[in-house]
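Hey,
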Amino acid sequence: MKVKIKPRVLKGTIEIPPSKSYSHRAVIGASLATSETNSKISNLKFSMDIKATMEIMENWGAKIIKGENSLEIIGNSGKIIPKDKYTKCSESGSTIRFLIPVGLTSKNELVFDGKGKLVDRPLDSYYKIFEKQGLFYETTDGKLPLTVNGELKPGIYEIDGNISSQFITGLLYALPLLNGDSKLIINKNLESIGYVDLTLEILKLSGIEIKNDDYKSFHIKGNQNYKPFEYTVEGDYSQVAFWIVAGIISSNTENEIKCLHVNKDSLQGDKEIIEIDKRMGANIDVFDNYLVIKPSKTKGTIIDISQCPDIGPILTVLAALSEGETRIINGERLRIKESDRITSIKTELNKLGANVIEEGDSLIINGVDEFKGGVEVSSWNDHRIAMSLAIASTRCRDEIIINEAESVKKSYPNFWEDFEKMGGTIEKLK
């Protein structure tokens, strides 16, 4: 699907969708819980990624009752007995990386498969563990599908902390279920500490005890039982980031955007968007459960994106409209997302009239007063690129067309509806 967008100022009040990161973790924790009572998870949006996780946990023995924006889950008591060995992860990196070790807590043959860019995303951190423990695995020229057979053994695990925290999360969910104690050693500096904090928070809610040695290692007792719980998912900072930037770059100084369901004390790493934007000069008022953003003149800065890579594309939009030079550094992990986000956001913003240079794993952005527009741009089938370009359209002189606009379904299925509610004007094309 293509969408044609006429430049319009966005304003008003927006309900921020629930955190995808928390949602994945809560669904998995509840699905592994004892069946003595139901877990209840509220404030959910059923994006493609969350649906993928739900379907796998159902396949592995959990009973999931779906409400309009909630779930009741009867867990499988930590026993993975697949109804079908085929484990379809759609395009969700979180789903596959969280669930590979969980699936291997019992003796099962499992075939993990996916779509799109997920087929190529690296899983080497797990392959090293399989080889060390003598577990059978087979890939298709290093790509999905992945066939794996065996049962993880308790003991010493080592993993690099500078690749993706998703591997760490997967092991932290799996190791408490093993028949013995384990230690997870983090080599190199741990990036995305905030995501590990989310994992530890949900595990604690699930009754799982993990000793954290300053993020250098984790001590995990075996034979633990996940407990049912009730949980309300907070708003997603990686999604509120789009509306924050929309408010900042508004060309009408009288406008404001109010973002609801935003936890001031959130552990989400992407909350860094507020500090970064304020440092650039943004006018953001932070309250307990909401934000108010007003149009602001912003200046360039240096942004270390290593701890919050998901907000890299939308920060590039803001930087492109800020005075002076901005450098977005340490973006290695941006290259292994749904698209190579360093190349994709540079390419598409430059089509609009931005001045963005790719230098290694960094972006150098020299600000312009406005974008020209008048062109067709590509989302690269990447939800965060599509949404970033939509926000960029509000400061274009002429209309733009975004292709593969349906990619937003991966994380924010109601994005285009919300975009129109906030004053955006779109026309859906074939």
